[in-house]
Automatic annotation (TrEMBL):
Its EC number is 5.3.1.1. HAMAP family: TIM_B. This is Triosephosphate isomerase. It holds the Pfam family TIM. PANTHER family: TRIOSEPHOSPHATE ISOMERASE.
């Protein structure tokens, strides 16, 4: 089964609105004419509307995503943002369960699941992030951690909803450290994720789910990572903030 690659840039808490528009315009230029892959960028909440306009609106080839979303339509949830608010500015994707949300802000699997189920109910495409810490890898618990995050994060998600979900494997020990999982390490965990999806759903569905790799993705390693059979794209952090580097990653060979 052919899975269209997805190259996603997570801009985290960087860039003013003007800086975000400048970078988004450069990414749009780098992505022009590409039909065999998808490109997504996730700016800060304050830049979503401006970036959506800069790349050409909701019908543009570049998808604009949010970095989190609440599970309720509205309410007394200070500091949160709802799916209808995101959709109001043309956003249709959201990153959920990123390691920084888990390890810096204390979001557990139940919280991630609540957000993911809510996102699906409102028609957003969630990117569910899973991945182990260095300690968990050294203790031989990589598969255990990833399986727990995957199965608990997808609790109550039905098969027809799962068709809208993207999974991202991001080894925590490789995020922002300059260390990258080797192509063999990435493929091993991606294959495990797909086999877990087979157990949770069925093979035909698991074969259709895109699994991205995230963890110090750079122009120097994107080609070898994308050559792996179960690596369907990348969730890029630091390199996505540099127009030239991200352009090279988007145009992997």
């Amino acid at each position: 089964m052919t899975r269209k690659p997805l190259i996603a840039g997570n801009w985290k808490m960087y860039l003013t609105r003007a800086e975000a528009v400048e970078l988004a315009s450069a990414v749009a230029a780098s992505s022009k004419g590409l039909t065999d892959r998808e490109v997504m960028i996730a700016p800060a909440f304050t830049s979503l509307a401006a970036v959506q306009e800069a790349v050409g609106g909701a019908d543009a080839p570049i998808r604009v995503a949010a970095q989190n979303v609440a599970w309720e339509k509205q309410g007394a949830f200070t500091g949160e943002i709802s799916a209808p608010m995101l959709q109001d500015v043309g956003v249709d994707m959201v990153i959920l369960g990123h390691s920084e949300r888990r390890h810096v802000f204390g979001e557990d699997n139940a919280m991630v699941n609540r957000r993911l189920v809510g996102a699906l109910e409102f028609g957003l495409t969630p990117i569910l992030c899973v991945g182990e810490t260095l300690e968990e890898r050294e203790q031989g618990n990589t598969f255990k951690t990833v399986e727990e995050q995957l199965s608990q994060g997808l609790k109550n998600v039905q098969a027809d909803q799962m068709e809208q979900v993207v999974v991202a494997y991001e080894p925590v020990w490789a995020i922002g450290t300059g260390k990258t999982a080797s192509k063999e390490q990435a493929q091993e965990v991606h294959a495990f994720i797909r086999s877990t999806l087979v157990a949770l759903y069925k093979k035909t569905l698991a074969d259709s789910v895109r699994i991205l790799y995230g963890g110090s993705v750079k122009p120097e390693n994107i080609d070898s990572l994308m050559a792996q059979p179960d690596v369907d794209g990348a969730l890029v952090g630091g390199a996505a903030l540099d127009a030239e580097s991200f352009a090279r990653i988007i145009n992997f060979t």
